[in-house]
Amino acid sequence: MRNIRITRSIVPNLFTTLNMFSGFVSIIYSNEHRFYAASVMIIIATLFDALDGIMARLTKSSSEFGVELDSLSDLVSFGVAPAFLIYQIHLFQYGVLGIVISSFLMIAGGLRLARFNVQLVGFDKPYFVGLPIPSSAITIASFILVYYKNDSGLGTWAVYIIPMVIILSLLMVSRIRYETIPKFSKKGLKERPYSAAFILVSIILIAATKGQAIFYIFVLIIVIGILRYAISLFKAKENHVEIDK
């Protein structure tokens, strides 16, 4: 009998698998109309997603297999799960149109992950091209955690569902750059002090508001990315005009 070889990569891959499992549980909860619990499971999946990257760096076990497994897990937890959640909670009433609109989160997320995989060079990157799929999923889940009420549903806030789904889907396949989380090391924190400060303040706000601030923080992150992109386009246009002169 051959010896079973256990490698260091099993640690981050375990967290990645827990990410996928959390997404699966979220889908089950959505099917049972337990929307609050389904949203919480998506948030939990993002924690496992963050931990698998941290553990991969700590154990120095980043691999192409890990990248592919991570993408498959992300598609389940941050593409399929939020798409089904948003359909079950509101878009089901629009019939086929509701199915199509809710699927945007899954389709755009899949395209975003595929593009990321083919463009990946090395395992460390300073920014993402397009809104990361976990950020889209957290925005959806935290919106429901903040505004969904068991007795009245989303109420008047439901009007924002379709625009939010469309905007998030477009941002995932856009060319807008979003910064990665800085490394928690002296060098990483020194290179990107403002990002580190933003994360620290965000953690404090999330703790102080018992999680209610998550939605607003991610809306701010999304808006900052759009504004930064718009400013870069404006500067590029100005430089082009100056060169022409």
Q: Cα distance, first to last residue?
A: 77 Å
Instruction: From the 3D structure, determine the CATH topology of one domain.
Output: Four Helix Bundle (Hemerythrin (Met), subunit A)
Q: Which homologous superfamily in CATH is the superfamily of one domain?
A: CDP-alcohol phosphotransferase transmembrane (TM) domain
Mean pLDDT: 85
Structural class: mainly alpha
Side-by-side strand order of the widest sheet: 1-2
Backbone shape: globular
What is the percent of helical residues?
over 70%
The main β sheet shows up as: 2 strands, antiparallel
Question: In DSSP terms, counting alpha (H) and pi (I) runs of 4 or more, how many helices?
Answer: 9
The overall strand count is: 2
Radius of gyration: 19 Å
Strand content: under 5%
CATH architecture of one domain: Up-down Bundle
Unreliable spans are: none
Indicate the CATH class of one domain: Mainly Alpha
Name the helix and strand elements from N-terminus to C-terminus, one letter apiece.
HHHHEHHEHHH
How is the quaternary structure best described? single chain
Supply database-style keywords:
mainly alpha; Four Helix Bundle (Hemerythrin (Met), subunit A); two-stranded antiparallel sheet; 9 helices
Description:
The radius of gyration is 19 Å and the shape is globular. The chain is mainly alpha-helical. The protein has a domain at 10-180: CDP-alcohol phosphotransferase transmembrane (TM) domain (Four Helix Bundle (Hemerythrin (Met), subunit A), Up-down Bundle), CATH 1.20.120. The protein has helices at 10-31, 35-58, 64-89, 96-119, 133-147, 161-172, 186-191, 193-208, 214-244; strands spanning 127-129, 177-179. It starts with 9 loop residues before the first helix and ends with a helix. Helices cover 72% and strands 2% of the residues. It has a two-stranded antiparallel ribbon with strand order 1-2. It has nine helices and two strands. Helix 2 packs antiparallel against helix 3 (64-89) and helix 5 (133-147) packs across helix 9.
